[in-house]
Design a protein that fits this description.
Helix content is 33%, strand content 26%. By secondary structure, it is α+β, with helices and mostly antiparallel strands. It folds into two domains: 42 residues, Alpha-Beta Plaits (2-Layer Sandwich); 152 residues, Leucyl/phenylalanyl-tRNA-protein transferase, C-terminal domain (Aminopeptidase), CATH 3.40.630. Helix 3 packs antiparallel against helix 4. The radius of gyration is 16 Å and the shape is globular.
């Protein structure tokens, strides 16, 4: 198994290590230390531990009145791990503003499908009838959900998925949901930045 450097050795951008592999044991060792892979085509595998870290504490999730109403509408159905492969493939394929291509490369997709088969990677699905309109996936380890990506094909699709993830987090007594990097979208839903030191203490406690 690959041994990762101390996360405090990451550079100012959060880059900690280069190379290695995406085998399940490697990925689980990385997440246990708060490290995740993120790289593009024509790049080696890059491992990250940013400081600060964007996280969502389940009891701090902001559910707007509009989102609450939408969650109660009968045309929507919510599932857990019912369509992991479809969720991750949609996350990889859906266009995103300001991005060219995707970081969910074939080798990343295969790696997380393996983690899912082993019971470590999970997905939330949002359905309208038989249509998958939103979802997210990530890795659950030691009471922390390391969220990797989400998508929305219709209004509030990803927000509904996150709301349902928060419900499961509260039911399961999870410590936090890791969101990796800051975005205004996540901040509007209650996520906040904490230092790497505080993050590592939280996930190891």
């Amino acid at each position: 198994m690959i041994e990762f450097p101390d996360p405090s050795l990451a550079n100012e951008d959060g880059l900690l290590a280069v190379g290695g592999n995406l085998e399940p044991a490697t990925l689980l060792a990385a997440y246990a230390k708060g490290v995740f892979p993120w790289f593009s085509e024509d790049s080696p595998i890059l491992w990250w531990s940013p400081d600060p870290r964007m996280v969502l504490f389940p009891d701090q999730f902001y559910c707007s009145t509009r989102l609450g109403r939408r969650l109660r509408q009968p045309q929507y159905r919510f599932t857990w791990d019912e369509a992991f492969g479809e969720v991750i493939r949609t996350c990889a394929a859906i266009p995103r503003g300001g991005e060219n291509g995707t970081w969910i490369l074939p080798e990343m997709l295969d790696a997380y499908l393996k983690l899912h088969e082993l019971g470590h990677a999970h997905s939330v699905e949002v359905w309208e009838g038989d249509e998958l309109i939103g979802g997210l996936y990530g890795v659950l380890l030691n009471g922390v959900f390391f969220a990797e990506s989400m998508f929305s094909c219709k209004t509030d699709g990803s927000k509904m998925a996150l709301a349902k993830l928060v419900e499961r987090a509260k039911e399961g007594g999870w410590k936090l949901i890791d969101c990796q990097f800051h975005t205004g979208h996540l901040e509007s839903l209650g996520a906040k930045e904490i230092s790497r030191e505080v993050f590592l203490l939280a996930i190891s406690s």
